[in-house]
Amino acid sequence: MTSIPVIETKDLSKSYGHVEAVRSLNFSVKPHQITAFLGLNGAGKSTTIRMLLGMIRPNSGHGFVLGHRIDDAHESVSLRRKVAYVSENKQLYDYMTVEQIIRFTRPFYPDWSRAREQVLLGAYELPPNRRIRSLSKGMRTKLALLLALARKPELLILDEPSEGLDPIGIELMLTSLVEQNSEGTTVFFSSHQIPEVERVADHICLLHRGSLVLDASLDDIRQSYRQIDLVFPSPPDESDIRLAGVESIRASGRQMSVLVSRNAEMLIERAHALHASSVEVSPIGLREIFLQTVKGC
Hints:
Number of helices: 11
Order of helices and strands: EEEEHEEHEHHHEHEHEEHEHEEHEH
Number of strands: 15
């Protein structure tokens, strides 16, 4: 049985003048997964999220969220009833207290969980009578997360959710995401913090300069990606090494370091055929994959 994607884009693009923020983006997010949208600052993650939520219009291409077209104003309103969004700047009503904004938000959502509200209020140590304008950046982030998580949404979208959180706050946030996901909520969050991504994500989408350069499950990445270090008597042409599955090549004199996502055995055979004097194969972590991928683009 095929699951309908929770998020799907087809050649989605957005430009600001001559700057291409997002270029022909094609990816999908499966239901009931935690998908990390990874990338450097300025890679186009926030622009993509704002298009998905109907906050800005794409220049070309199409997108669907929970089956709704993102470029249709009526459908965009419908999808936002099912989606909880925590933005990078955590916009809130500064004149309200913590308790007031919770009471204000609660009636809009029939599935609001009072139990989750109270658990998060205590876990995040949010002061009910404190005005939002006086909260620290980390406290504002925790409050925004509470307002999103207590809604029990079908889809939770977060843009740099750990921004402003200390290590304990990040741990609480990650635990909350896993718990919410275990109850059926699909989670899609942007980040450039690789350790937190590795802790919770099922799937990785890596964006670089507006283009998708990696789209794979974290399990597949761990099982299939390898770094192969080669030494040759004389430097071969890179074209002789660039087989299917080669993601990046770093060459220095007679040495080559090759990142592969598949066909490692085929590359090893090719290296031996080119008289490699040394072939070393090693697993590679997400951090190294991230660095080599964005540097090679």
